[in-house]
Amino acid sequence: MRVIADSDRCIGAGQCVLTAPGLFDQDEDGLVVLLTDTVATEADTKLAEEAAHLCPAAALRVTPATDDAEGQPGA
Ligand code: SF4
After folding, report:
1. Which of 2, 5, 61, 68 sits between 20 and 30 A of 21, alpha carbons compared?
2. Closest atom, ligand 1, to C-alpha of 17
3. What are the DSSP E strand ranges found in the chain?
4. What residue segments make up the domains of the chain, in order of their start?
């Protein structure tokens, strides 16, 4: 699966880092930083989906790995 973070939407709430510290970090302004853009294991996929669900700014998306960087379905 692919994880997409929209830093323009991110408000720096940090829920993603608290939920999945192995996948997300925050920069000096508190905005989300992806530690990886692909999640290979079911456990990491669940954590990424939980983080996306909890994000108050709806800044995270988890999509199939075949989708492009904007989450649009691949060919
Ligand atoms: S939970 Fe959402 S708003 Fe908060 S830091 Fe992560 S991406 Fe940004």
Report:
1. 68
2. 6
3. 2-5, 24-26, 32-34, 60-63
4. 2-63
Residue of 25, 54, 60 to test ligand 1 pocket, by largest number of atoms within 8 Å of CB:
60
Whether residue 18 contacts residue 56, with contact meaning beta carbons closer than 8 Å, is answered with no
| pLDDT at res. 37 | 87
- What residues in the chain have per-residue pLDDT under 50? none
Instruction: Please choose from 4, 8, 11 the residue to mutate so as to test ligand 1's pocket, defined by most ligand atoms within 8 A of CB.
Output: 11
Tell whether ligand 1 has an atom less than 6 A from the beta carbon of residue 34.
no
2-63, CATH topology level: Alpha-Beta Plaits (3.30.70)
pLDDT at 75: 61
| Cβ–Cβ under 8 Å, residues 69 and 34 | no
Helix (H, G, I), strand (E, B) or coil at 38: strand
